[in-house]
Each structure stands twice: as C-alpha cells, then as structure tokens.
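TOKENISED FOLD:
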Amino acid sequence: MSKPAVLVVDDEPDLCELLSITLQRMDLNPHTAATVAVAQRMLKTDRYELCLTDMQLPDGDGLELIEWIQQYAPGVPVAVITAHGNMETAIRALKLGAFDFVSKPLDLAGLRKLVATAVKMSVDKNGDTALFGPRLLGTSKAMQEMREMIGRVARSQAPVHISGESGTGKELVARLIHDSGPRREGPFVPVNCGAIPNELMESELFGHKRGSFTGAVSDKKGLIQSAEGGTLLLDEIADLPLHMQVKLLRVVQERAVRPVGEQHEVAIDVRILSATHKNLSELVAEGRFREDLFYRVNVIELRVPALRERREDVPELSDAILRRLGRRMKVTPPVLGTDALKTMDTYSFPGNVRELENILERAVTLNTSGEINAVDIQLRPTPALAPIDFPNLPPTAASALGDQLEDIEREAIMKALDKTRYNKTAAAKILGMSFRALRYRIKKLGIE
C-alpha cells in the first residue's frame, strides 16, 4: 500500500524541509506547495490525508485555504501553523473548520502527535456516529441535527462547549464526540467542577508533587493529565471559581499544566470539552465567568435540545428505558399504555430525560398489571402561573410595565454615560455594576 500523503503549504524552504523530514520519519509521503493557488490545484488532483498550512502565504492566508477546503475537499483535515501566542488567529481557524493548530517555533513532539491523530482520523474515516446511534435515541429533526453536528465536531480537535438543561444528556453527547473521533482509544475523563471542594480543586485538576503541602505524601497525577491522549470533559464549568478559571485559561492556551509544587509546566495532549446548564454569556456579563476563558472553551457550541422540544421521541425513549429497567430488575418490563403516553405528551418534563427515567422506574416498581396506565404515571404538578393583579393600574399599563422598567433603566444608563463623558468604566461605578454587566445592558437595550 502507498504511504499516506500529507500536503505542507508554506513559502519558507527551511520549514518545508524540516516538516518533510519529520513526516518521512513517520512513514508518510510529504508534498509541498508555496502558495494557496498551487495548494488548491494539488488538492483537486491528488488525495491527501492531511493538509498542514502556514497562515501567511504570498497570495493569501491559511484562513482562505481552510474555507476553500471545507467547500471543495471536505474530507481532508487541515491544521494551521500560527505565530507563537497568536491565539486569536488559531481560534478563527478552528471556527472555520480547522482540525487543530500548532505554534511556532515548532514543537516536533507535539507536531507528530497532531499529524498521527489527523492521519488516523482520515484513514479510518471516523466522525461517523452511525455505529453509536442506539446510544443517542430519537428520530426527531432535533436529534438528527444533533447526530450530524456530533459527527462534524468529532473530526476536529477544537474545544466544544455543550449547553442544555439539566437531564438532557450533555455527558452522553460529550462521550459520543470522544467515541466518534480519532481519540476514542484514549481515556474519556469526565470531571464535575461543582463537586470538587475549592481547597482541593487545584490539586485534583493539575496534580501535585510530594511534599508540596501537608498531606502530599507522594506525587499525584491530576485529572487533566489522566486524560492524556484522550478527552477531558469539564462538566458544570460555570461552577469553577475565578482563580481556577485563570489557571484553566493557561492550560487551554499553552496546552500544558503545572502540578502544585512543580517548577516547570508539563505538556499535555488532551482535547477539552465543557458543559453546563447555566448561561455562560450571562455569567460573563455579570462578571462571574472570565470572558477570555469563555471564548477559548466556546470555539464551537453544541446545544442539546430539551425533551419538550422533541416530544415525538418520548415513545422510543420510554420503550428503551423500560427494556433496560427490565434487565436490571430481572423482570418482564411492562408495556406503556396509550393513556399513559397521552398523559406524558402534555407534560413539559422540566427534568428532561433523567426525569423520564425516574418516572418510569417508579411506575415499573409499583406496577402489578403488566401495563403502565395514566394512573401509574406520577408527574410533578406544573400549575399555570396566575396572572398578576395590579389594582391601581389599568390593564394596558400593567402589560407595558416591562417596557417602562426598561425605559427607566435606559435613562439611568444614559445619564451615567453623559455624566462620565461616555467613559463606560466610570459609568459602571456610578451605577454600581461591573463593566461587563454595563456593556451587556447597553447592548440589550440598544443604546448607541
């Protein structure tokens, strides 16, 4: 069999030679191009398992080539070479569809890992979630789009932020991204950021050296290093305290960790996924989540739909859950009656799939007839909100109260800005809010 071919796009002969030698030692077949135009011609005529491109080229830049590849050669992973510390460019490349990036001066060990992962992905044709479909049930349009999105992000190494309500299955989606990509043979390490005590968080995540603090009787590898070669899921990332957000930002940017008590950073090869049921954008506006970290972990956002947004999947989910409960309890699972399904069809499921599992487990435990009916389905009461009575206001005034409050808020912000000659930092101090919160309110209220 012929060696996998890799296209190197760079106009620096020395760098092309270094990359070619490195690729040949990996038993790969390197080809080189000095311009975007030449690279496009080669990609049209030949098959490549990876394209490695510099950002600055004589007739364009790497970002243009990434966009072209996404349209005309979507099966080819593309990685970019960026200037040291130019994280903004790297993030732009990832958002456009780049597989990964490497910074100058080149770390050949890290480069070899990147190339090996990309070539493995291309040769194995990973990113197809069809093999894992039964674990992500549902035929609704929302779930079909979810599977397609998982397949797309699995082919990248870009950080992915998974949002969605509690109980929707965010960890399952993260695991599918891991299992559908080239890192699936490596570890998948989920970490609940809200479950680790603050005083132990740095040691748990980054590890520690022996004697670095009282009780550190031996070296300990942190959870981040435990995911080496695989995927780390930072579940409920919104619960990270601000001082840990700073340390995590450096991990994401430098791809290295420094254990407690260690003098030097240790390079890591880990893909970072994050998840939370909270609105990170609002937390950024309120100053409770770092804006720079938000942009680093939210390169790609994947929203998991709530169960009420895909009600047509409830029968299939229920059937699968009942079969699983039957195997676990070693009983013949009861069937779900038509009236029970009708009852659940009108329910909003605030706890989503996790709540559906609890409802059915309770019904199976208490059921004696072999069929689950409406009376067996115990749903949480969700009474409609009673209308608010404004005895001293006419109905039109009551309905417009929200608009009036916004007008008052807008006027207060305008006065503060006028008083400070549009110095937002000073205006925020006058209003008693953070700078980020003020900027968020200015945008929301449409203040020019």
User: Anything to note?
Assistant: DSSP finds 19 helices and 18 strands in the chain. The domain at 307-376 is CATH 1.10.8.60 (Helicase, Ruva Protein; domain 3).
